[in-house]
Amino acid sequence: MRIIGTVGLPGSGKGEAAAVAREEDIPVVTMGDVIRAETRRRGLDPTENHGEIAGKLREEEGETAIADRCIPMVREAAEDQSGEPVVLVDGLRSMAEVERFVDAFGEDFLLVSIEAPFDLRAKRLGARGREATDLDREKLREREERELGFGMGEVIDAADLTIHNDDSLEAFREQVRAVLEAGADAVDEQHAGGEHE
Ligand SMILES: Nc1ncnc2c1ncn2[C@@H]1O[C@H](COP(=O)(O)OP(=O)(O)OP(=O)(O)O)[C@@H](O)[C@H]1O
């Protein structure tokens, strides 16, 4: 079994990595979806109250509230597969969450950091234009600081391997496919990264 967790600042390419997994029929558990579902359950608007509910869940149920809800979903997605199961978990944000996944899956859990410089992420998000914040560099900075406040910087530093997403989209997708197929072994073969510059 291989459980691949991704971490990355806004616009780094996590959604794109999840799209590659889906194309390969690899199930994706999106931590943000768990928060969106909870926001809706509380009768609130997921586009406006997402950050607030993420914080509330952690306050009410502890730091691993979101990871705790994801783990049974990951197990179920793995059990549904024949052969060697692979599941992608999109969007880990704190070391408490990482530790929860390591407790649950041990060596089968691989933490992958997706990295790109701020200007490139701002440009790509501007082109994506999915949310109002995509077009606003200041809002991007604010979002980034909030994420780092949850401890994302430590998670990035703790990653087992790094994919540098500073080339073409096709080059990035190729690296993601290699990691999905071979896990950490993909790094030596594909030069998918691993060293911080
Ligand atoms: N190497 C690349 N070249 C060009 N465009 C890219 C590249 N990587 C990602 N993109 C595009 O940049 C945008 C941001 O990527 P993506 O949506 O995957 O980021 P994300 O990490 O999921 O961001 P967020 O956390 O803000 O949702 C998307 O439109 C994606 O298609």
UniProtKB/TrEMBL annotation:
Q: Name one GO molecular function term.
A: kinase activity
UniProt record similarity statement:
Belongs to the UPF0200 family.
Record Pfam families: AAA_17
HAMAP family xref list: UPF0200
Determine if S-adenosyl-L-methionine is one of this entry's keywords.
no
Kindly state which keywords UniProt assigns to this record, in alphabetical order: ATP-binding, Kinase, Nucleotide-binding, Transferase
What is this protein called in UniProt?
UPF0200 protein J2753_000849
